[in-house]
Amino acid sequence: MRGLVERLQKVKLFVLDMDGTIYLGDRLFPYTKSFLGAVEESGREYCFFTNNSSKNRGAYLEKLCKMGIIISPEKMLVSNQVIIKWLKEKRPGRRAYVVGTASLIEDFRLAGIKLSDAAPDYVVLGFDTSLTYEKISKACHFIRNGAEVFGVNPDLNCPVEGGFIPDCGSIAALVKASTGVGCEFFGKPSRHTLDYILGQSGHSAQEIAVVGDRLYTDVAVAAGTQVTSVLVMSGETTEEMLAGSDIKPDIIAENVGEIGEYLRKNG
C-alpha cells in the first residue's frame, strides 16, 4: 500500500464501495471475504455504500447473500436513501417524476413520496437500466416547464464484466444537453452522502475510511474532511488516471485484500 497508511490505526468503520471494489458484476473478488474477516478480527466494523441507484437495499442484500456475505439491513447503504431522506425533509408533499428502474421507483413509493407523470414539481434522474426515449423526453419537457431536477448519483459509467455501461451521470448529461439545466447530485461525492454516513454510523469523521475504486466519487467524498480515503486499483481507476487527477487519495491499495493483510499484521 502507498500513502498515509498509519491513518488506518484510527479507523473504526470501513465504508465499502461495491462494483469494482468487492466484486465485478456477479463475480466476487477472491480476496473480499478474507478482507471482511480481517476487519472483524481487528475489532472494527464495515458497511457497504453503493452509488448504483438501479437497485434498492433489498436487491443488494440478496446479491450479497448469494455471494455468501450476510449482513444486517442497516449495513447496506444506497444513494437512493440519501436523496429520499433529503427530499422528504426539504421538499415535503411535492410530486416527483422518477426516471429510474422499478426498484428506485418502489423506494420512492415506500417512502411516501407522491409520484406524477403529468405535472411533477421535480424530476429525479437515477441509473435507469430500463431507460426509454419516452421517459427522457418527458423529463426534459417537465424541466423546461419549471420542474426542479435532481440526480441520484453522478457516476458516468458503471463497471461490468467486459467493460462499462452508461450510468446516471451520463443520463443527466443528456438531459442537460437538451434542456440547458444541470442537476444537484446526492450520491458520492456529495456532502449529502457524507452527512448521511456520519448520521447513520454514529462515528466521527476521523474514525471512518471510505474505500472504493473511483477517484471522482469514492475518493472525492472524503476531500477536505478527516475521513480517510482509500483507492483500490481493482476497478475503474488506472495508474494513468491517478497520475493525471487533481483528486488524490490518502491511501492507495491494489485491492481490499491488501488492506486485510495490513490489518492482520498491524491490528
UniProtKB/TrEMBL annotation:
Keyword Transcription in annotation: no
Keyword Glycoprotein applies: no
A Pfam entry, by short name: Hydrolase_like
GO MF annotation list: phosphatase activity
Sorted UniProt keywords: Hydrolase
Superkingdom in the source lineage: Bacteria
Source organism of this protein record: Acutalibacter muris
The protein's name in its UniProt record: HAD family hydrolase
InterPro entries membership: HAD-like_sf, HAD-SF_hydro_IIA, HAD_sf
SUPFAM superfamilies (UniProt xref): HAD-like (SSF56784)
A Gene Ontology cellular-component term: cytoplasm
